[in-house]
Amino acid sequence: MDLVDTTVLSFSKNITDQGLKLFQKLGVHLLFLNNKDKRLAASVKLMTGSKPFNISLYRLALTPAGLGEETSKGFRISNERLEFLGDAVLGAVIAEHLFQKYPYRDEGFLTETRSKLVNRESLNETGIKIGLRNVLDQEIGERNFTGNKSLYGDMLEAFIGATYLDRGYHFTKCFILKRILLHFDLEGMIATTTNYKSKIIEWSQKENKQLEFKVLQVHGNQRFKEFIVGLEVEGKSVAQGKGSTKKKAEQDASKNACEELNIAT
User: Fold this and answer.
1) Pick the catalytic residue: 112, 139, 154, 157?
2) Which among 83, 87, 166, 252 is annotated as catalytic?
3) For every residue of the chain, which 3-state class applies, written as one string?
């Protein structure tokens, strides 16, 4: 292929891309949607504040594994990959927001606050608040479906992943900060400090399980130390934690154990 052919192809591609973007901005692509897609597009606009470009991404975000169809190659179509992507995007946006909002707080505070914002319970409640339950009910119609307890939190992350692929990072960041974060009582979450060690001990007593904290490593010098603590349940390692004191490391290990064992906090 000579230089002229390459130039013509490049020019044609740019014209096509520009035309597609113009169609999207004008909303022309929505004219070719069926009624079901138009209802979903209206719901997406209500939640994000703007019309979707690729409606199939959002339909996939609303397809948990239990509703996904299996392809001829044995692959089940579901929102799990979008959930993975949305989790990463949400974590990055929240981390940057906290970093800028609290310039004088340490890494431990930022990590704990982010964990409170993006835990399963918080995301599940927020997914329902922004309207995902109503949209899912509209999508599944008469089909019988019972999802897991974190259904709407998982779906929210998948929806964020779909928004990121459809509209890009900047739009998705604005969507998260202006339409998702407002549902969180951030200051209230910060004021409420969870004693994870008490939670795990309470769980062990209820379940009649033997707990043991073990100091695995100590780094640093007399002034600056980092403790790494392991938590064992019935002699089996369940989680590890770290902190500037043994007490903080035990709290961190307990927090990680609560997440690993699905203990409500």
Assistant:
1) 157
2) 87
3) CCHHHHHHHHHHHHHHHHHHHHHHHHCHHHHHCCHHHHHHHHHHHHHHCCCCCCHHHHHHHCCCCCCCCECCCCCECCCHHHHHHHHHHHHHHHHHHHHHHCCCCCHHHHHHHHHHHCCHHHHHHHHHHCCHHHHHHHHHCCCCCCCCCCHHHHHHHHHHHHHHHHHCHHHHHHHHHHHHHHHCCHHHHHHCCCCHHHHHHHHHHHHCCCEEEEEEEEEECCCCEEEEEEEEECCEEEEEEEECCHHHHHHHHHHHHHHHCCCCC
Category of 143 on φ-ψ map: left (φ > 0), alpha (ψ -120 to 50) or beta: beta
Q: Report pLDDT for 82.
A: 96
Taking phi over 0 as left and psi of -120 to 50 as alpha, with beta for the rest, 235 belongs to left
Is residue 87 annotated as a catalytic residue, yes or no? yes
- Determine contact, residues 157/86, Cβ cutoff 8 Å: yes
Contact 32, 23 (CB under 8 A): no
Q: Is 157 a catalytic residue?
A: yes
- Asked if residue 219 lies in contact with residue 225, where contact means CB atoms within 8 angstroms, the answer is yes
CA angle 144, 84, 65 (to 5 degrees): 20
Q: What is the pLDDT of residues 218-244, one digit of tens each?
A: 988 766 788 899 999 999 999 999 888
The confidence score (pLDDT) of residue 9 equals 42
